[in-house]
Description:
The structure is a single chain. By secondary structure, the protein is α/β, with parallel strands linked by helices. About 45% of the residues lie in helices and about 15% in strands. The model has no long low-confidence stretch (mean pLDDT about 95). Strand 3, helix 4 (about 105-115) and strand 4 form a beta-alpha-beta unit. The protein has a single domain, classed as Undecaprenyl pyrophosphate synthetase (3-Layer(aba) Sandwich), CATH 3.40.1180.10. The radius of gyration is 17 Å and the shape is globular.
Amino acid sequence: MNHIKHVAIIMDGNGRWGIKHKKSRNFGHKEGLKTVEKIIKSSIKNKIKYLTLFAFSTENWKRPKKEVNFLFSLLENFLLRKISSLNKQNIKLKIIGKKNFSKKMHKLLDISEKKTSKNNRLQINLALNYGSKSELVHSFNEINKDKKKINENDISKHLYTQNIPDPDLLIRTGNTQRLSNFLLWQLAYSEIFFEKKLWPDFNERDYKKILEKFKKIKRNYGNI
């Protein structure tokens, strides 16, 4: 039976869920945050050590400014309300992605990371302003400073996810079957589960079902 250390999730379908329920896209994002809290609790219950959530991509800046502003306001309110609780639960928060946000947001993220830095029950990697291609370019540029021949280990050491094991599995909700520039290097041997449900409808039972299915998969890593 496969042990699960790291789960990555593309939380797709918030906006569509809001429209489907005759509300706004922003209403869908707000409801999706409730699912995040449920999955965090379930991850702890299932003794998962790393949970990587794709929250905002480098491409998401193309969305309407009103929606982008709402998303960051939602994140800001969540951290202000929940960071103390996360800390008490021994949860570590790490931001992966380009940290070119407003001064206010950058300071809040920095405080949140520092406050939880010594926790080890669960590490939440929040992919924010993240794009896998730009991450790889960043890694190559860091390595190039030493002007040496590059190997796979060098690249891994310079990714945003350095010292974090690659995901055992990826879950993408929203009935869309693509990776969308997410952890392209790290997902090389991850099992991928595409879920039809939109993110706000995804629940602990759906999550547990996928985890149990993963545990029974025969993983060969190129072998027979």
